[in-house]
Amino acid sequence: WRRAVEPGLPAICPTEPECRSLLAAFAEDSAALTGCLGRRARPVRLCQGCHGPYRRLLAQYGTIARAVGNSSESHNCAKSILTSDRLQIVVTLSEFFNETWEAANCANCLKNNSEGLSNSTEEFLNLFNKSLTCFEHNLQGQTVDLSPNNYTEVCKNCNETYTKLNDLYNHLQRMIRQGGESGQPAHLCIDVEDAMNITRKLWSRTFNCSLPCSDTVPVIAVSSFILFLPIVFYLSSFLHSKQKKRILILPKRIQSNASLVNIQEKYS
Amino acid sequence: MLHPSITLGPAQRDTRVPKTVQEQCGHFLLCLLAGSQPGCHSGPGCSEGDKHLTPSSLLRIGQLSNVDLNEDIHELETELPRQRPNEIPHNEKLLSLKYESLDYDSSENQLFLEEERRINHAAFRTVEIKRWVICAMIGILTGLVACFIDIVVENLAGLKYRVVKDNIDKFTAKGGLSFSLLLWATLNASVVMVGSVIVAFIEPVAAGSGIPQIKCYLNGVKIPHVVRLKTLVIKVCGVILSVVGGLAVGKEGPMIHSGSVIAAGISQGRSTSLKRDFKIFEYFRRDTEKRDFVSAGAAAGVSAAFGAPVGGVLFSLEEGASFWNQFLTWRIFFASMISTFTLNSVLSVYHGNAWDLSSPGLINFGRFDSEKMGYTIQEIPIFIFMGVVGGILGALFNALNYWLTMFRIRYIHRPCLQVLEAMLVAAVTATVGFVMIYCSRDCQPIQGSSVAYPLQLFCADGEYNSMATAFFNTPEKSVVNLFHDPPGSYNPMTLGMFTLMYFFLACWTYGLTVSAGVFIPSLLIGAAWGRLFGISLSYLTKGSIWADPGKYALMGAAAQLGGIVRMTLSLTVIMMEATGNVTYGFPIMLVLMTAKIVGDYFVEGLYDMHIQLQSVPFLHWEAPVTSHSLTAREVMSTPVTCLRRIERVGTVVDILSDTSSNHNGFPVVESNPGTTQVAGLRGLILRSQLIVLLKHKVFVERTNLNLVQRRLKLKDFRDAYPRFPPIQSIHVSQDERECMIDLSEFMNPSPYTVPQEASLPRVFKLFRALGLRHLVVVDNRNEVVGMVTRKDLARYRLGKEGLEELSLAQT
């Protein structure tokens, strides 16, 4: 098939066979990674499922970049694959994957050598699955009752798990923020964030479980008391405080009255 | 009646004068004059008071002065206080006696000339190098102070918001949010109480933003205590406490004052408060040099506050220095540059990314992406409209603040009341914020950690209350949020309520006895309504103009700030430098110009207004336009207390200790004129110089007896600067009172003089351009007729009905 691709450049073509095989391997890896990312886009499971393909792609790219070998200048694979044309598709692809990976903050969920999920993430995901099971379990009972707006059962039974999950999430987030350098907003990895988002939405929007008690009356009382204080203050100082008087000093001047008259005549 | 320009006959005068009196009854001075000297209008018939006002008596004063001048003066001065003290409530048409002028014109006496001649060319070069060194030190120290304020505020405010947030989170679930409200209000009030107590009881001049005070100082008015070390300490602590206390204030304005104090302190090489003299920079111990450094300090302050070195230089140029030269500009620019660099590098180290010099100011407006947020010609009218809105809102702000300040001056003048007021404002600010957050149903999803203290309150889990980003934060952060949060982060209702509330809070807060600036609150109000404007624009046009609300927030902020403070060029450059975007230069200029024009139509700028309310004799750039008919003769004070060239010590002491006339400059006349020679003006001597002379007992008799160990040098005068001892602390024995004192060596032999016929604008120009303190009015025989000082010129002001005259008052 080579001939079909490059009909006119059989021998002069500088792309060596070993470079071609590198390129093919890279293409396969990127296809695998793309597939993985696409399949795990919703609900987001990128970091859990795609760290293997991503690592392989990185390694492959590394091989290409390092493939200077001992061959001569014209047979340099890195050069011919990465930098010989304007488009530089391999570089663009690898940059895209890197950026996606960075934006997903996957490194925050993986172990330091990025082989597998870190312990805290595992723990979180376990808890997450547990709460989902809990929701499901309790909802099944609800659907029999046919009262979709009444989720009190769920709220009561799953409260413990949900609170645990929420606390763990907050804890993890705090850890990340302390660890990361200040100034840049630190995120947990997208898998964890998304999982938490889903749960929270279910909990407070769908099930309407987090109903805070609103104590409007005491708040209104206290705030109107405080807002009333300045009025008292200004009124009392207006009525009781002695108004500050200024003592006028007569300037020593020639006929200052006359000059005033003068001013008055001319300008008023 | 005696003035040549008055041509009215007696009959006309009789009809007119009462009418004028009636019309002018609001004018206290005239009422007073009319009341106390009822006969004076009708001509030479009236006795005593009028006696001195006839031309012949004027001449007589001139002649008498060589014979028995002092008694005559004495007689004149005791007559005036005899009239019953006239008390009026404080108003804007007063000039306070409290303020004196600075001596920008150095006294060119023999000592000075001798010293200047001794300094050779090389020595002058060292002086020049010293100036640069001082400017560098000003920059470094100002930057460090700014860093200190920033870091402390960040940590303390962070602590406060964390405590309150935890409390609110706790009580949201369990109920009892009124406790959170109480906690927040109490925390705010107690922090502000400390901040207000130190200002009200220790150093009241540290109140406010300090920009009016520095403006006055650079204008040539000596505001007591304004550049002392104590003021700096109180200012810095006060700013930190009032920002942490959650008031609607910023920490940027006070940086200008802090920079000025630092400059004034360093350039003198000593601190009188700490009683330490480092024996350096003695050459700079006079008002002229000090003023130059103070303008450098003000520039360094602006530059540290906004990361705007050029804006700082222009601020000094525009607001302050009446006297300017190119070398000074360059030095000031150096100080600004060093200041922003210091701040930048220290903060970069503090934030953990050392030597990343990308946050040059205390407030950083963040990066505006000009590719994404460009503007087109269709938006120009919109910007102009925003400028108009900013001008109107700014004028409203100033007008409200004017009434409030007037009320405060009249009724809330006791320090305890002032502290109480500040506490109340702090508590109310917290309450308003809390109620707004409580009532708001505007929930936004949390995106990472872009919100510093996300308050959930009644929002769903994972969302935060968007009103809380505006209220539950330091104002600086809120401004940046309004500029940069993605479209849709705030709903219009939230922004509208926030603008309304914050407008009144900020207006109420400015003028409290706490040290705090008005820049950030103005920006915040403007950013809020600007963003609201942007949102409604894209809503109204159905998205045909794709309007990024952040851009309109910036323009709104510029318009509001311009409408309130009315600075022109410097504010434009400051805004441009703070946004770090030249693309927005033109719209910002446009918006600021419109805002200023519209605002000036209604009331004047906030700073000028406060200067006026403080009764400061502030000289504007030019004399009032309709003042050409006034001459030096009408403007000057007369009669003048003169001293003879060789004067009796007792006389000098008596004149100096006369409490009714606290004069500072005395014309020196010839002591023994012959029959052919008149007592012409020979020189001018200052109170401070006389006091130094008396202190060192430089009397003719002692010199003759060789009792004086050494000749007095200029250094002796400098060492006493700037706090000369009062005359009461100098002891002069009865014998010494009979000694004579020779002033010829110490007086300034070439004082500036004007003839009586010079017009007010001409006198004004001379006075303002040279930064004079005393201008002697002489007749054609070089005899002293009167004296023009700052208060004589500052009295005339262009009011609503033409030229009006302010009265002098004791405050």
Automatic annotation (TrEMBL), chain A:
- Give the CC-aspect GO terms: cytosol
Query: Keyword Membrane, does the record have it?
Result: yes
Keywords attached to this entry: Membrane, Transmembrane, Transmembrane helix
A Pfam match: OSTMP1
Transmembrane portions of the chain: 217-239
Q: Which InterPro entries match?
A: Osteopetrosis-assoc_TM_1
Is Ubl conjugation one of the keywords? no
Q: What is this protein called?
A: Osteoclastogenesis associated transmembrane protein 1
From TrEMBL, chain B:
* Membrane-topology descriptor: Multi-pass membrane protein
Q: Which residues form a coiled coil?
A: none
State one molecular function term (GO): chloride channel activity
In the UniProt record, does the keyword Oxidoreductase occur? no
Q: State one Pfam family annotation.
A: CBS
- Annotated ranges, domain CBS: 747-805
Identify the SMART domains for this entry. CBS
Mainly resides where?
Answer: membrane
Q: Which domain of life is it from?
A: Eukaryota
Which GO cellular component terms, listed alphabetically, does the Swiss-Prot or TrEMBL entry include?
lysosomal membrane
Compartments it resides in = Membrane
Q: Sorted alphabetically, which keywords does the UniProt record give?
A: CBS domain, Chloride, Ion transport, Membrane, Repeat, Transmembrane, Transmembrane helix, Transport
Q: Which Gene3D superfamilies match?
A: CBS-domain (3.10.580.10), Clc chloride channel (1.10.3080.10)
Residue ranges spanning the membrane: these are 132-153, 181-202, 232-249, 293-315, 327-350, 380-400, 420-439, 493-512, 518-540, 552-576, 582-603
Family of the protein in this entry: Belongs to the chloride channel (TC 2.A.49) family.
Query: Would you tell me the protein name for this molecule?
Result: Chloride channel protein
Upper lineage ranks? Eukaryota, Metazoa, Chordata, Craniata, Vertebrata
